[in-house]
Amino acid sequence: MTTAPATAPLLSAADLRVTFPGRRGAPAARAVDGVDLDIGAGEIVALVGESGCGKTSLARALLGLVEPTAGRVSFGGAPLSYGSRAMRAYRKRVQLVLQDPSGSLNPRHTVYDAVAEGLRIHGYDGDERAAVAEALSRAGLRPPERFFLRYPHELSGGQRQRVVIAGALVLQPELIVADEPVASLDASVRGEILALLLRLRDELGLSALVVTHDLGLAWNIADRVAVMYLGRIVETGSVEEVLTAPRHPYTRALLSVLPESADLPVVLAGEPPDPARIPSGCRFHARCQVLASGEAETAGIAARCRGEDLPVLPGAGPAAVACHWASTP
């Protein structure tokens, strides 16, 4: 897979935090609790983790849909401004692709209107019909004119997802954020959509953040992987480094349940903790198989696991892990 060149990142988050107030005096929920993350030009980064780990909140903050409580998001080297004019320009350069094409498309709008909507919102003054046709063609719907007057219910699931992708491409963005882009599709169609995203990267230099719970998907599409747990990235590195030699017990547990894994599945105890009550020490320690098995005690690090916090991992660079056990010589 292609590795992004060592230049300034296209999108960068520095010590990003997103907090939601609790109800009736309850503690605030720290959905994103200190994240550094870089995405280079032409790079695909997979953000992986269980439901509720903060992936979507982080993606929304990177898109400017949620203003961070603390920290900074930069695009093209400039800090993100949250004024309406600046945000309008930013959202033309960074587009969102949602997981459920049926929910993303208005059933009363034709394919043409669905794809042209972004152009109309941003006051496009060029040849709208040509732009829509090009976007549909790039998304794999050819000849594009054959789809102009169709409605979402007349399309297959894969075709609907291609329309959603065309709606993002029509504005010629530099980055797309794809939230579970193939989760609602049949297995036979998933590979086609992943191949499309890779082709768009190769042909257009498009960058992508792919939000997913599926490490198998990350292996097939990503250059780098960031594994998220309870508001923080706990392991990051190239897809080969993280998925062939995982160091964090949480990453190992996620990998163990893949059908192609040779390891016995690791069943994690309990549910992820409440983000309003993040435990002290390593935030994974209450569910950690290394601690539960006694290995951490034998290694003399159990007390650190329970009481010593870990630093925020760097947004790019060599593989890194936030784990006392993995860092023990």
TrEMBL record:
Pfam families: ABC_tran, oligo_HPY. The lineage of its organism: Bacteria, Bacillati, Actinomycetota, Actinomycetes, Kitasatosporales. Transmembrane segments: none annotated. One of its GO terms (molecular function) is ATP binding. The keyword Nucleotide-binding applies. NCBIfam families: oligo_HPY. It comes from the Bacteria. This is ABC transporter ATP-binding protein. Residues 11-255 form the ABC transporter domain. InterPro entries: AAA+_ATPase, ABC_transp_ATP-bind, ABC_transporter-like_ATP-bd, ABC_transporter-like_CS, Oligopep_ABC_C. Signal peptide: none annotated. Keywords: ATP-binding, Nucleotide-binding, Transport. Belongs to the ABC transporter superfamily. It comes from Streptomyces formicae.
